[in-house]
Amino acid sequence: MDSLTQLALGASIGVAVMGRRTAVWKAALWGGVAGTLPDLDVLVDHGDAVLNMVLHRAESHALLYLAVLSAPLAWGVARLHVEADLFRRWWLALALALLTHPLLDGLTIYGTQLFLPFTNEAFGVGSVFIIDPAYTLPLLVGLACALSRPAWGLRVNGGALVLSTAYLAWSVLAQAWVGVHAQRSLQVAGLPGTQVLVTPAPFSTLLWRVVAMDGPRYHEGFYALADGGRPIRFKAFDSGAALAARHADHPQVQRIARFSDGFYRLREQDGTLWLTDLRMGQEPGYVFHFDIGPPLSAERTDPPPAVQHSLRADVRAGLTWLWARMWGADVEPPGR
């Protein structure tokens, strides 16, 4: 999730766990620090855009490492504030703030390596968008109330945590329901349903994007909860499967193929290979779109560093479409 959401979640947890045992601002401050800490890995540049992508949310998001980190962090905070008698409570608060960060990230589609060092499998449920005001705003309101009016604001903060957690549960249920509807729509359209991605469109769980891989093609469609059971209309695009097969030994193709669980596209233009993660974005705009250089050959066996070129859609047209489509209007996405 975005940094503001992670900060708000960590701070809210810190306040809820510490309660009246310490000053609310202390609990909010250190909970927010712990909630933000795992994302400091973005400051590490691996010299290659693809590596930066696949190595983000790795060791810094591993549950085991964060659990180990929580004890010395809590000891330092308790010592700093001369609250040694509250060490265990600080430990619980900061452990929860640290551990809920990767667990929340795991609900997005990006991919979080939760169980390092045992496996580097990247988990991504994909039930929430990376920015979702319906999740974040209750946390901010609860936190503001706790900081400004602790007498009753602590209860509001606790209620906000319950509400935001319930929203996450709702997102998983909504995703499952849309997944069932997507399978039916694919069957009606005569399309395969063995490799299907269902993830929310930006900023809400009212509109969902569905992608189905089909060998040389992938099919993209959208379903709003306001559509009332209307079958999803899919549009086909070239996935570059034949090109990907010819370059199956290319290390960058292998990395993205694994990290994206097969939801990727490969194209060649003017002697340059372009590799795209199809999970984040929508036609024709994708965040993770990489120039991985010319095809490898017997003379050129090492690829150059990948360069990211995000494909940006028109923001105003996109938001206009998003609002209309979210409420059930049967309109085509812009630029498609």
Task: Give a verbal description of the structure.
The structure is a single chain. 46% of the residues lie in helices and 14% in strands. It is α+β, with helices and mostly antiparallel strands. A four-stranded antiparallel β-sheet has the order 1-2-3-4. A four-stranded antiparallel β-sheet has the order 5-6-9-10. α1 crosses α2 and α1 crosses α7. The mean pLDDT is 95.
Q: Return the structural class.
A: alpha+beta
Q: Sheet bearing the most strands, described?
A: 4 strands, antiparallel
What share of the residues does DSSP label as strand, in percent? 5-15%
Q: Which consecutive residue ranges, at least 5 long each, have pLDDT under 50?
A: none
Q: What value does the Rg take, in angstroms?
A: 22 Å
The number of helices is 10
**Shape type:** globular
Strand order of the largest sheet: 1-2-3-4
The count of β-strands is 10
* Average predicted local confidence, pLDDT: 95
> Helical amount among residues, as a percent range?
40-55%
Write down the secondary-structure element order.
HHHHHHHEEEEHHEEEEEEH
Number of domains: 2
Q: How far do the termini sit from each other?
A: 27 Å
Question: How would you describe this structure in keywords?
Answer:
336 residues; alpha+beta; 10 helices; 46% helix; globular
